[in-house]
Amino acid sequence: MSESETISSADEGAVILDISRQRRADAPDAVNTNRLYLRVFGRLSVVDQDERPYLPRTRKAKALLAILALSSPRPVLRLTVASLLWSRRENEQARASLRQCVHELQDVLGCDWSHLFIADRHNLMLRGPNLSIDAAALLQPGEQGLDCLGVFRDMLLEDLNGLDPAFDQWLGEERARFARFGRTFAEGLLAHSPDAASTLAIAEHLLLIDPAHESAWRAIIRAHHGSGDRGMALAAYDRCCAALANSSALRPSPETQELMSRVRRVAPPAPASPAAVAPVSATTITTTSTPALFDCNVRHERSALRLCVAPVRLLGDVADDGLAAGLTEEIASGLSRFRWISCVPGSMWRGGGQETGPLPLPARQQSEADADFVLDGTIQRSGTRLRITSRLIDLRAGGEIVWAGRFDRSQADTFGLQDEIGAAIVAQVDPELMAHEGRRTASRRRDDLSARDLLLKALPGMYRLERPAFLEARRLLELSRRADPGSSVVHGWLAQWNLLYVGQGWSDDPQRSANEAAELAERAVMLDPMDARGLALAGHVRGYLGRSPEEALALHDRALSLNPNLAIAWCFSGLAHSYIGQHEEGLARISQARRLSPSDPHAFFFDMALMMPHLMRGDYRDAADVGRRAIQLNPWFTSAYKGYLSALGHLGREREAMEMRRRLTQLEPGFSIEAAVRRVPLQRPEDMQRYAEGLRLAGVPEGGGTAPRPVAVITVDSGIDLVSGAPQSRTDQ
Q: In this structure, is residue 361 part of a structural domain?
């Protein structure tokens, strides 16, 4: 036997191949002075005491390291690891792939740390006295108390979803195991909490693990009420209702409702001193230390608009073939998929006959108490033609009609007709409702803004893309997030803000902005794994900023399965297909976005996206037409100029290209071909060459070079099993 290898016995009777370097590392000075820190909560990381990284390059090698870390110090059978990471391969192929990962892991650990990685013919193991694993420390909390729960702000191995169906299942089970531990540990701390401040802190940590934990919600309500703040108690109850509505439970339990009855009925005690209660989160923000950014009070309001879908009414002699009832159901089902809209029963709205409008008092008072808007509709027939109309009515504004749509169709298949018209109505109501609410909040006083108001107030600035208004939108979104930190919707919009910030060329640090977009999109998915908009944004972050459109497609498909009426998801999905060279599919999907929502505030983005497949197919005239239309819709959107310039270059329209160059330079000084190819994630060399050559022909300067490099290399966890589509306890972005 050589000096470099010795055979020694190990735990559970395994024969372990030990590297001779272990003798040096086992010396007292090595054990006492050096340490390797392995973190599995959040993104996998491995660093030494000097913050030097020791992380493998490939995702499968990272997954191998994660499996061993979560089993440490126990050995794991090679066969088990191979079946988890290569479940779809033949045994011999899986074993060969595992050997490559073992070699990669040994190489990256090097002579300093390879003694911690022990391998023999049958087993693999990660162990050693100078190895620190955050998960192992978590399972032995000792006297750590509340600090132990801090790790649950990050999800276990959030960057390793989608490797293999077997690994995804194992990862889901591990996440569930740690969630059970964290929940049990937090419940124990909560039961012995000494004061209101500790109760609030522990309960909020518990809700990070289980957002629908009613005992935690009741503890928060009691703590606020006990400290004399009935408003915060009522706000906590509203947050509880929203959290339960997003889970399997639809309403609070009788115990929680009884508690709230007592809160409303019984006057709270005198307020405690400020030092006695320090809430972890609040729905009212009063900040004086940074007035430039946070300078308003935010009042609490329910986060979802309540919309009543009234039964579609038949006018004249239209035969009742079930179309009206089916269309009503299709619309209500479609709108309920938007997380910021809460559908309420439609029986409160007057139907039948030819009467229109809201119910008379007092029935109308009850209606307005239950809904902010009503969506009604009618069906008329003339020969074989059907006319379907729909109106969105603001009940808070005396019945103001916010939007109206008319659809003329030939009477054909009932199911097909209700699917088509229902999808069109749903897709158009969402942006119209959002735009209306944004206009309504624009004139509101700053001391009368809810978290939802702040979000809606920010959107016009994001749509216009004028830089001062755009930067102000970021401030408003941050305020909204602080007012409602559990909102997946506001996290998604903040992620989109960062996407646009990079795309416009305004970010001084594109890497930082890209990573922030990834973290925000990931957080949105974690807060609500069934939110289609969050999944679509997470996919676009991965495809555009992360330059991994193939990985983005699974997220886009999942988003569309959850909400097939979400126009922006169709657009993002079409872009991802075009990025990988599937331009026909990309064209079809982006066109579907425009058909669904022709008046969408994102219409300029849809037209910009349409340029990509047209340009890559050589349809330069079509690309130039939609590019011109995109700029007419939003002259501040820099991405529209870039595709348009490439098309103009190929068409030889020098004068038009010169004007577009001038306008783009004003919006994004220093734009060059090098900057363009660095940013666009086209995967095929011929597509990248076509894009760059068009810019060159249009007179765009070369810049510092043309070698494309990613803006940011990031991964995003989707929070779902990308194969089955089943929700998991956490995500990959």
A: yes
Angle at 475 between CA 473 and CA 477, to 5 degrees: 70
Same domain, 273 and 238: yes
pLDDT digits (tens, 9 = 90+) for 532-567: 888 888 889 888 888 888 888 888 888 888 888 888
Domains contained in the chain, number: 4
**DSSP three-state, residue 523:** helix
Q: How far apart, in whole angstroms, are the C-alpha atoms of residue 61 and residue 99?
A: 10
Query: Residues 640, 631: contact at Cβ < 8 Å?
Result: yes
Amino acid 291: pLDDT: 29
pLDDT at 191 over 80: yes
Residue 201 exposed, middle or buried by CB count within 10 Å (0-12, 13-18, 19+): buried
User: Given a cut of 70, is residue 348 above it in pLDDT?
Assistant: no
How would you write 630-643 as a 3-class SS string? HHHHCCCCHHHHHH
Are 613 and 590 contacting, i.e. CB atoms less than 8 angstroms apart?
yes
Which residue type sits at 113? Answer: W
Q: Is residue 396 part of a domain?
A: yes
Q: Report H helices in 227-354.
A: 230-245, 254-265, 323-335
Domain contains 362:
yes
Q: b/e map of 649-679 (b: 16 or more CB within 10 Å)? A: bbbebeebbeebbeebeebbeebbbbbbbbb
Q: What's the number of CA atoms in the CB half-sphere (13 Å) around residue 50?
A: 4
CA atoms within a 13 Å half-sphere pointing along the CA-CB vector of 518: 27
d(C-alpha 299, C-alpha 282), whole Å: 10
Q: Which residues contact 628 (CB under 8 A, 6 or more apart)?
A: 644
Here the CATH number for the domain that contains residue 623 is 1.25.40
User: How would you class 332 by CB atoms within 10 Å of its CB: exposed for 0-12, middle for 13-18, buried for 19 or more?
Assistant: buried
Is residue 240 domain-resident?
Answer: yes
Domain span including residue 207: 195-282
Q: Which of 128, 146, 164 is the last residue of a domain?
A: 146
One domain for residues 212 and 320: no
Alpha-carbon gap, residue 613 to 580, rounded angstroms: 11
DSSP 139-207: TS-TT-GGGGGGGGGS-BTTT-TTS-HHHHHHHHHHHHHHHHHHHHHHHHHHHT--SHHHHHHHHHHHH
Q: Sort 255 into a burial class: Cβ within 10 Å, 0-12 / 13-18 / 19+.
A: exposed
The span from the CA of 158 to the CA of 715, in Å, is 9
Task: Report the distance separating Cα 226 and Cα 105, nearest Å.
Answer: 55
Q: What are phi and psi of 382, to 5 degrees?
A: -135, 105
Task: Please tell me the distance from the alpha carbon of residue 676 to that of residue 698, in angstroms, as a whole number.
Answer: 13
Give the DSSP H or E segment for 284. Answer: none
**pLDDT surpassing 70 at residue 27:** no
Q: 437 and 312 in one domain? A: yes
Confidence class for position 47, pLDDT limits 50, 70, 90: very high
Whether residue 529 is preceded by a cis peptide bond, meaning omega within 30 degrees of 0, is: no
CA separation for the pair 293, 287 (Å, rounded): 9
Q: In this predicted model, what pLDDT tens digit does every residue of 588-638 receive, in sequence order?
A: 999 999 888 887 888 899 999 999 999 999 999 999 999 999 999 889 999
Phi first, then psi, for residue 6 (nearest 5°) are -130, 155
